[in-house]
Here is the input.
Amino acid sequence: MIILLPILLPLLAALPLGLLGSPRQGAIANAGLTALVFGLTLLVFWAPGAGLVRADRLGLIFGALTGFVGLTTALANIAYVRGAAPRLSVRRWRVYHAMCQVVLGSVLLGLYADNIGLLWAALEGATIAATLGVSLPRTPSALEAGWKYFILGGVGIGLALFGTMLVYLAAQPALGPGFGAMSFSALSAHAAHMDGTLLTLAFVFILFGYGTKAALVPLHGWLPDAYAEGPVPLTTMLSGLILNVALIAILRFRHLLQANFTAGGGAMAPGPFLLTLGLASILLTAFSLTRRRDARRFFGFSSIEQSGITAVAFGVGGAWAIFGGLLHMVLQTLIKSALFQGLIRAAELRGSTAPGHYGFSHLRGLFHANKYVAWGLGGCMFALTGLPPSGLFVSEFIIVSQTIQRAPWASLPLGLGLMLCAIAILRQFGPLLFGPAPPRTKPGATPMVTHLVALHLAIMVAIAFFMPPVVAHMLLGLTGRLQ
Amino acid sequence: MVGLPGQGMHLRLDALSALFLIILLPQTIAAALSGMRGSLTFWVFVAGMVVALLGADAFTLIFGFELMSAASWLLVLRGDAKPASLYAGIAVFSAACLIPALFLPAGALAFMLILLGTGAKAGLAPLHSWLPRAHPAPPAGVSALMSGGMIKVALYVLIRYGFIVLGAKAAPWWGMVLIVAGAASVLIGSLRAMLETELKTLLACSTVEHAGLIAVGLGVALRAKAMGDPALAALGLQAALLCVVAHALFKPLLFIGAGEVKHATGTSGLNWLGGLLRGMPRLSGLMLLGAVGMAALPLGPGFAPEFLLLHAVIAAAATGGILAHLAFTALLAVLGVSAALALGAAVRLVGIGFLGRPRTLQAAAAEDARPGPLAGMALLAGLCVPVALWPGLVLWGMNPVIRLLVPGASPAPLAYAPLILVLLGGLVALAAGFVLHRFGVRGTREVPAWMGGFGRPPAWLPFGDPMTQPSASGFAAPVARAIGAGLLAPGGMDPGQAWVLAPLQRLYLRIVRLAERIRRATIRERLAFVFMGLVLALLVLGLGEGG
Amino acid sequence: MLGFFLALLATLLHAALTFAAAPFLMGVVTTFRARILGRRGPPFLQSYRHLYRLLRKTTLVPETATPLFGIWPVVCLLALGVAALLVPGFCTGMLTAPAGDFITLIGLLGLARAALVLAGLETGFGFGGAGAQREMLFGVFAEAALLVVLLSFVLLAHSATVNGISVAFSTGQIGISVSLGFALAALLAVALTETGRIPADNPSGHLELAMVHEAMILEYSGRYLLMFDYAAMLRLLVWMNLIGAVFLPFGMARADDLLTWPLGLALWLAKLALMAVCLAVFEISSAKMRVFRVPEFLGVAMLLGMLASVFLFVAARIGG
Amino acid sequence: MNLTFSLAHLMGGIILLCAFSMLSQRRLAAMITLYQMQALLLSAAAFWQGYAQGEVSLYLTGLITLGIKGLALPFALRQIVLRFNMIRAVETAMPLILSMILGLALIGIAVLVVLPIAPGAISLTREDLAMSLSVVLLGLLVMIVRRSALAQIIGFLCTENGLVLAAIGMPGMPFVAEFSVALLVLLAFLVVGVFLFRIREHFDTLDLTGIEEIERRGR
Here is the structure.
């Protein structure tokens, strides 16, 4: 079973990583393992597995994305560890690398699993690993962030489990007891015959459970702190990957509900729930971004916004909107990981990558320190706003236009929120890049990671604007089935 | 395949987009000559405008429009970070209005959104106050293209949607809304142009005025078209489109010139200039020509559009009920006041900046402009000449556009014939020249200025005491006292800033404070948010399914 | 062919009479004014002597003036000269009639004003600037009032050229209406301001601080001053012609009918004389206003113009 | 068959009662005792369901519950209480009576949500579902209305009990779920232990006000 390899390899490798090696060796091993996993995620396209772990197209695509982002993050991580090694003990670094691998493996499990129980277990594993990772720096604020993450994440996990059991219960009339009632493919095939009322109840719990992982408002409480306090490369994984798994899980359950609703099975339409949470996320972010003085917290809020946009897209429904939402997830993952890599470089140029060194006032005037890093980071920031030539323009265009057509009432808050967020991000752009640099700033060398950032951005633009029609039609067919 | 996944981009070239592309060309060349050739962002900016003009589907249109906004934002940011955020806000706001509008069913809501989106970008009141702050920020070439080209692209979108896409559903009151917005911009723009002392800000205010003039013309045409009066619609369109063409020539000219003034003297504040005509004769001559266009004086490029516009408004006053009649009468008064204010602004620009004595040493030592910008300005000035002297020809060239916008219209010939005026003027000049030559004493003698009988300035002030000269702000003081006090917000602030943007900003801050309170919640309170959300959802569920 | 020839002849006659009579008219007004005040006043031909004297004087150019110093008088003179050719005097239907659009006329007056103001700013001395800024302030309201008045004319006459308005009004179908009365009052106010007569400016005043028109040309001398002075005279005539053509169109000759010319000429002179007397009487019976009262004065004119337009509409509604 | 259901009902009801009485307790020791009772009842319920359904996995669940939740966890919690000298009453965020009214309302909502489910459609009775849902919600409420970290953890554990109560009622639910719950509790407590240890390192008590203090400093 090839499909088990990319999942088990990192999970098993976590043990030796957690017990052996210096930080530097750990980072290199981490990168090597991740490269292997990336290769495997590509290989899996030809062997999507069977039974409990059987990847569908969606899982495969996001699996490859996870592998790629994991790889670039791990590469950037080598440089990060080199600079940050003295800050933590060797044991902590070992735990840190082990947790990176656990997160990677659990995320892949979550994406590839066909079983709703496995999906849940995967997310739980990822949460625990990430909690440990976040609290590693052991400063009071890091502990606090980890504690928040644990409490809110734990509650979310509990709610998701309840939802999962309710889904199983709702599937009883159609599928009877046993593994069949927990398999996504079986559930989606028999969605119409499930108990609609129970399914709706289940969806509410799933939404609030996995919504906590996806950091939708009002379940977002853990995210900004976790972003700001944990080690940066781990934050990258958090921002892109765990959010993605949670959102895809929500998408899959939403599909069950929608199918049941369309077939007249007694379920409520999932749209209003998702739209409400999504719009709340976007609007709260819109008003929270301006006052942020710490760059990582700032981009943490931006992640909440992106989750909200995706949730709105899923809530709007229809093949195009879901396509837009998925495209948005892919692009935003690429941008965010590039952004955090750039942020590490920027902080390094200013002396330290420790948490607390990411204030905008500390980073400002990057252009005077290093032109390429500045443009890389600035490009990522600009890309987040959704103005062309950023790829997010395409996805946001699709989402907004679909919202207008399918849920007109939502378009006003959506447009307002997107607008305010974009303005808030652009407001930071000027000072960060071209503002007066703090005194005693020395121009720094151009690190290799800048190329990685550029690569991310190039891929992002290419995916959005140069998608071959064949691929686009294939994806639209996929989202049509998911609708 | 480039563009929206699975759909791509579609381009189209018709008479309307061709017209706007043509007016884009000379100013792009001029801006490139003025020193923007090497800037990638500048070319992206131009490309955005071209794509927006050529776009045949909503995606391409918005893509080009926003690319243009984004690139120009970056250019503004590099010039001056302060107005950049405001500019970005307006750019995103127009997208936020336009994208929904393109997908709404044709109707009043769609048109109003289009009007908001394009009006914000084109600097129509009440969303104009950003323009005088943002347009002067980037290098002169970009300012030129922003004023001459970018607002035209916004108006192009307005025309395309108002007349073609939503044309079938148009109602007369759409035109009235456009006219009101235009009239307000005309009045505020011209008044502020009269009061501003910074050269580029002054020009940007004048841009607001011209955008308003174009909007008034379009409004008259839209109203007439909806009322089934193609002749009047054609007249209004002629006025608007001719204004588009003329403004696209003389405003970039003026902006590039202003940039050169700044380059030569280190300042573009009128109160620090003066007497530039001596040091920069060629630049000053070209600026004078541009100022004639800006002031809408006869034989200048700006007069024919103004002429057509006034005629269109007068003709429109004869249609509709008593309210419309009153409105158009008031509109004429507004246009009259503004025309005179624009004349005053142009006169002040020339009279304070280029005539008189230098007010600073930099102004006294200014050397003529660099050849590149000068060549660009000369190109624009050369193109101004046919527009000024033979506007009929330009209007003839526009006929396909007008027929495209108002099917069945037959544009009337122009009643204003500058060539005849030139001929008459020539005859008068001949006669006067003959009299002076035959009977008069020739020759002039250079003497110290009389200065109302005051004593000569000391030797260390070769140009006299600058403080004795009328200043730019002093020149505008009577107007500021007579009109400004009534039309502008307290403190001479722009009403759009004081009564639209500032309250919005306060509202925003209030909500931000609320959001901060949510952000500062303790863990327990955050948990309570989750819990409340869940309970609320369950309640909705229970009530929804139970009831 | 004959019609064209007659029109050409009428135009040439109009041009000759206008350019020749302009100083005379100014002289008449000045002399009348003095007579009514009980002084003897200068002779009627004093203006010609004044102009001739300027013609024979050397022209002085201030050191601080720019090369454009000599351009402004020329522009001012040409703009008003062309305007004088466009406004019909003793007859309608001249060759220049089609080009004599009212708005073109407003534009030409604006051009002349711009040249005058720039001349005031040319040397960069205080009085010129003070005069220039006042002139600009007056212009703002004058132009608006003029446009509003024009609206009533155009709606009544269905023509925007001065010639067309004159023809339409002379046919008598319009009749005397309230709105024309308002329009007349408004137009008179604008005319007084534009020509620099008493409530707005004192043409014979010599206190620099209070001057408007004279202050702007203080640095000019010789033939440049000649041009400015002559242009001022032309401006007065243009305005009188304009008011005559619009409000007193009766008895105007038709260019293609030679027989009407004598009466037309006689009546034209009589109208000018009448207006000159009226102007003189008005000037001595009122005082010059403070600068900031003038905008109010013109604002009233603008409101009157709007009232004219409104009454026009009301009348049309009642009549139709 | 009738007996099966009524007994299961009875136990579920008592578990709910335990959860509800937790709301009314001010002292940690009493809360721990209530939790222990709840866990013991839960394991009994699991055994009973295992017997009724003939499922071996349910016996296993019952054993895990008995061993860890019924004995080990309360013991550990008591140790913490003793060591940190937290006998005194804990601070509540709102008046007790109000929180109990809220608890009642929550039970009402749980019933309201469960009512529309078609009675015959599923084998688990609606009442059982309503009870487990109520326990979950009450646990969350405990987390919100108590200011002490330990009390919050007890609330969290109560929520887990509710989940297990639902899980053991699921007919033929594959073993995955039970295993996961056990894993969750184990791991969760592990992590909590780590946290307690560290929070002990930085603050004098387990009271979360210390953390709230950091929060107030703001960023």
Chain B has a mean pLDDT of 91. Residues 195 and 479 of chain B are 8 Å apart (CA to CA). Strands of chain B lie at 444-447. Chain B touches chain C through 87 residues (CB under 8 Å).
